[in-house]
Amino acid sequence: MKKRPIGKTILYVILIVYAVITLVPFLWALSSSFKSLGEIVSGSINFIPKNFTIDNYKEIFTREPLFGRWLFNSLFIAVVGTFLNLIFNSMAGYALARLSFPGKKSIFIIILAVLMIPFQVTLIPNFLILKAFGWLNTYQGMIIPGAVNATFIFMMRQFFINFPKEVEEAAAIDGLGKFGTFFRIVLPLAKPALAAQTIFVFMAFWNDFMRPLIILSDESMFTLPLGLNSFKGQFISYWNYIMAASMVFTLPILILYAFFNRYFVKGIKFTGEK
Amino acid sequence: MVKSSSSKKLRREAGQGYLFMAPVLIILGIFVIAPILCAIYLSFHKVELLGGTHLEFRGLDNFMKITFDDRAHIALKNTFIYVVIVVPLQTLLALVLAASLNAGMKGQKFFRIVYFLPTLTSSAVLTLIFMWMYNQNGLINHILDMLHLPTYNWIGDPSVALLAIMIMNIWATAPFFMVIYLAALQDIPDSHYEAAELDGATGLQKFWHITVPNLRPVTSFVVIMGLIGTFQLFDQSYIFSGGSGGPNNSTLTVVLLIYQYAFKSLGTMGYATALAFMLAIIILIATLLQRKFSKEESLY
């Protein structure tokens, strides 16, 4: 295939310029997190710190004793929440794809309808319900309402519809019940679909700002986004600390992405094909 | 006998079906279906949370109040401006990036990983990084100054604060939609392009006459997702303005206003619910309009 070299050059310019535009904020934040307060205040724009220091990373944990706790809260809520989503969404997707029971069609339509409702409509009643349960400022208040997700129930249903029936039939002949077949045979074979779900659900819990803002008022229960916001209020001109805290917060997602990179693209593709 | 054993089997399968569905049915029931019904009820009431929850029936008052509430008008105006500017720009940027990446360039993988970074990073972190760059003495003003362009008080000046959020969010969201476009681009058969090349089409002609029409369904999806996302702008406005929607209400969005009425002032929770319904209806109408337009276009 012959290509005009000028066209290619223009495309490379576009790609490289945009890569720089994307990277600069992150590099700037990373560099600021290794600078001293003096250098931050001076307003210089050097990307290589003059006096390289890792003190900011130590300081955020000592100056804000709750920082470690916020990190734990965020991890705990995201990990347990993701785990429950994987099991519950898959179970429902499997039932909708493979089992027959009265009302199946209407349940499926309700799940599709739920996809359309903006989250703000249910937000206020959800607050009142959690308050009535005594679940404000608790882990279960953050985890349980988000433990299922209509998008991924739908995705798992599509996945199981295309799943070879023979595998389950063989398991049934070996005397496994429906639950045994599902948990021991079917679920382990659904790994690609589960991996795509893992990264999206984890990110949604990990990055969520509005729900914790409403449910959590006790500082020790804060998740990182809330903690970061209150940290910013406390140390308003200490941008070196704020950037160090931001970097700590971004790291786990980057690690997760490094592991699940392949499935990430698949997951987005699925959202696009819906 | 055969019949009774098969009906027994059916009943057992139905029981298992409900068991498999149980967690989803319970959670959706309590935290989605019940809240929707509850929201309808609340929107017709004045809600007092002092002590217990007190409700007072007010008919359509909450919905009428929207028409003469100045802050609601400002929030609506800000949100509309934000949607109208951000959705087309982020869609166009996503398309240009995807098409450039898809043109058989070297280093595609590298660019894709770089472009993903904003999608992976939380809105709270991105907003803080940008607030640091938007600082009066910060990186962006320094760059503008070097290029002999005017500098701004990005966070404190009401005339540019919303613009600052727009720039940030176009930057943050376009790469996500780029990935969706990229997947769709890879599904366009090469034979289309080869036929056009035989006819002597240039790169740009191929883009307009083959790529763009083939991407119409995906574009429709990207625009709808963009509309839904932009109408719900909250995190960035909240962090940018410390929850106030300032300076001078310039970053006040509908969702931020809902939050303020529901949780930051007394006795206006019912009104906040009415505002949430209004937003849901606006989003629904915008989505339907988009669908209608994209269908009419595809007739030609």
From TrEMBL, chain A:
A GO cellular component annotation in the UniProt record: plasma membrane
Residue ranges annotated as transmembrane are: 9-30, 70-95, 107-130, 142-160, 181-206, 238-260
Q: What is its main location?
A: membrane
Which of UniProt's keywords are assigned here? Cell membrane, Membrane, Transmembrane, Transmembrane helix, Transport
Q: Which InterPro entries match?
A: MetI-like (IPR000515), MetI-like_sf (IPR035906)
Any one Pfam family match given in the protein's UniProt record, by short name:
BPD_transp_1
Record Gene3D superfamilies: MetI-like
Domain ABC transmembrane type-1, chain residue ranges per copy = 71-260
Q: Which CDD domains match?
A: TM_PBP2 (cd06261)
Keyword Membrane (UniProt): yes
A single GO BP:
transmembrane transport
List the subcellular locations.
Answer: Cell membrane
Q: How does it sit in the membrane?
A: Multi-pass membrane protein
PROSITE patterns documented for this protein:
ABC_TM1
Q: Please give the family membership noted in the entry.
A: Belongs to the binding-protein-dependent transport system permease family.
Protein name, entry field: ABC transporter permease
Which organism does this sequence originate in? Fictibacillus enclensis
Q: What is the lineage of its organism?
A: Bacteria, Bacillati, Bacillota, Bacilli, Bacillales
From TrEMBL, chain B:
GO biological-process terms attached to the record: transmembrane transport
Q: Where in the cell is it found?
A: Cell membrane
Q: Where is the ABC transmembrane type-1 domain?
A: 76-290
| Primary location recorded for the protein, binned into one broad class | membrane
Q: Which GO terms describe its cellular component?
A: plasma membrane
Please verify whether the record's keywords include Kinase. Answer: no
Has the keyword Cell membrane been applied to this entry?
Answer: yes
Superkingdom to which the source organism belongs = Bacteria
Which parts of the chain span the membrane according to its record?
20-44, 80-101, 113-134, 160-184, 215-234, 269-289
Name the PANTHER family for this protein.
Answer: ABC TRANSPORTER PERMEASE PROTEIN, INNER MEMBRANE ABC TRANSPORTER PERMEASE PROTEIN YCJO
Q: Which family does it belong to?
A: Belongs to the binding-protein-dependent transport system permease family.
- What protein name is recorded for this chain? Sugar ABC transporter permease
